[in-house]
Amino acid sequence: MSLVNRSSLRGIRATSLVRISPFSTSRLVRQFHDTTNKQSTTTVNNVKLTPTPPSIQSNSLSVKAQTEYLKTFDYKELISFFIIGLATLNKPILNLCIKAFPYVPISVIKALVYRIYCGGETINEVQETGEKLSKRGINNMMISLTIEACNGNDNIDPEYIARETSKSVENILIPHTVKMIEESGKSINDIPAGYVALKPTGFAKDAVSALKYFKSDPVQAEKFNDLVAKSASVIQTIYDANKSLAEKYPERVAPFVVGVIDAEKFELQEGVYELQRRLYQQFNKLNEPVTVVGTLQMYLSGSADLLALEEQLAQKNNYRLGLKLVRGAYIHSEKDRATVIHKTKEDTDNNYNKGISYCIDNILNKKDSTIGHLVVASHNGDSLKLASERLYNELTISNPEKNNVCLGQLLGMADSITYDLIKSLNINNVIKYVPWGPPLETKEYLLRRLEENGDAVKNDNGWPLVKASASVLFKRLFGLA
Ligand SMILES: Cc1cc2nc3c(=O)[nH]c(=O)nc-3n(C[C@H](O)[C@H](O)[C@H](O)COP(=O)(O)OP(=O)(O)OC[C@H]3O[C@@H](n4cnc5c(N)ncnc54)[C@H](O)[C@@H]3O)c2cc1C
Predict the structure, then answer these.
(1) Greater confidence, 412 or 194?
(2) What domain range is 95 assigned to?
(3) 150, 265 in Cβ contact below 8 A?
């Protein structure tokens, strides 16, 4: 049965909280923070925490900083960066590459750029990627078996995806997390959790119809239940692993492994929210670390109200929330953009920053916080700096709940910022989203990365990347570095 049946929604809407977004004005921020938290009365724009960590390199990296982060990559990766630099030299060249991309043979893609954005084709290759990342100071991953199915491509076998995803938890995430705990030399609460991302459209044939019509069509409701059951079978593996690892390492505060439900296009999101709620209810028990994290897209104008609703539902139904906050990836394809997405980038940025501040403050300072875990999934230097400042300051030094917040970037994206977070700001909880799977299946994902790189042409791609990767390659070849 739907967790959000009409009567429960009516009951909740009767309260003022749902109608009022938790952070739409500074007055309302206070309303949600009238707990023990001293920082709670500050608004995002007035963050006054000391000491302030050194500034993160956000959108204007110096060539020197570029060169520094590139030194952590091997020859083949540097050559791939050089090629990406060439492909993003300017908009016309990039547009040409994007148009030509579908016709480029998969063997060429694999040889040239696949390794930068994808963790490998097999479980063994993803394990090696985890090793490589740990050498760069990135001690865990969010792995995602990437078989795209959201645009009507139903070339998927949900049984296979559920089975392989569970296998990836057992054979990649758990051993990698344990290895990091045992061998990194860091304290147990300084190793981030390992995450596995679940794309809801991968867990049923024609999942789009199930997610859209599960409330009105009994056939789709049946299919939706099956989608929930398949997702739950993966999360059960994670829940069991957390239970047994907690016995071995009782001093750990955060979960060891976490299942993350990815957000999709707006028209599918009602179904995705329902999926998240059912999984929260089943696995995110009170007084236990969170096992399931759902995603909120903060570019949605209704996202602050939605967060308030999720908190209400969690409190009413006695479960905890795990959240991944993203800005949102579907802005270009959103049909009802004018009505569902914030009017300006600035509005999205404000909403995102208020959202992460609110969640972090709750996790760090509120006893028995409903929000138990947060992934700040972003490449935006300002948002990451804000999150870092709230997490690492003299008030939070000995607060182990910090481990319940992690900062995530996509593999191959914003590597300079990831580097800065780890090397300049000494942030422990940084992970990379690592898609993996057959190159043919990841082609759509790769195309999206190319397009996103286009958005960043002016920043650290294009000519600066060509120069920096060539310089590192040259010095390494001639033994000058
Ligand atoms: C680890 C990880 C997991 C992710 N998982 C998901 C997921 O499950 N679902 C999903 O949808 N996305 C996901 N994303 C992608 C994410 O939603 C963003 O598209 C991407 O990270 C770029 O946003 P940013 O925060 O890095 O910041 P920026 O690059 O500063 O912001 C770009 C974003 O701002 C918003 N924006 C841009 N212009 C406007 C405008 N005119 N008006 C309003 N808003 C605007 C858009 O959301 C755009 O993507 C994930 C990203 C990461 C790093």
Answers:
(1) 194
(2) 71-116+451-481
(3) yes
